[in-house]
Amino acid sequence: MGNKVYAVIDTNVIVSALISTKPDSYPLTVLSYVYQGPIVPVYNDEILAEYRDVLYRDKFHLKSEDIENALETITEIGLNLKRVPVQGEIFPDPKDVMFYEVKMSKDDAYLVTGNVKHYPQKPFVVTPREMIEILNGKQ
Hints:
- The chain is of the alpha/beta class.
- The protein has one domain (5-138): 3-Layer(aba) Sandwich (Rossmann fold), CATH 3.40.50.1010.
- It has helices at 11-19, 26-36, 45-55, 64-77, 97-103, 128-138; strands spanning 5-9, 39-43, 79-80, 110-112, 125-126.
- A 5-stranded parallel β-sheet has the order 3-2-1-4-5, with helices on both faces.
- Helix 1 packs across helix 2 (26-36) and helix 2 (26-36) packs across helix 6.
- The longest helix has 14 residues, at 64-77.
C-alpha cells in the first residue's frame, strides 16, 4: 500500500471499530488502516475531545488501553489541522460541523462516517465501506 489517503474519521466509526466482534467489519478495517499507515487521520483538538468523551462512555464497555492506543496513534501519525468555517451547509447535528470543517482544511481528505445523512452530500463524505473501496482502488 504505497498511496496514503487523508481522512477525518467520525467518532461513530471509531466506536464501531472498537466494539466490533467481526474482524472484517468495515469500521475495524478503517481503523486497522490507520494503524498500518495507508490512512492518515486528520483531526483537531475538538475532535480528540469528542473521541475521548464518547469512547469512555460506560455503555460501550471499552478498555482504556484500546481507547488510549487509538488516540495515541491518531495524534502520532495524524495531521492536527484547524477548522475552515463553512456556510450554507445544513447539519442535523451541530456537533458534526467540526468534522466537516476540519476536513475542509485539507483539500484531498475524506470524511469517513457511518452517518452520511448527517453531512452534506459530497463525494468526499464516505462510509467506511467506500473508504476501503477507495483504498483498494489505489493499491
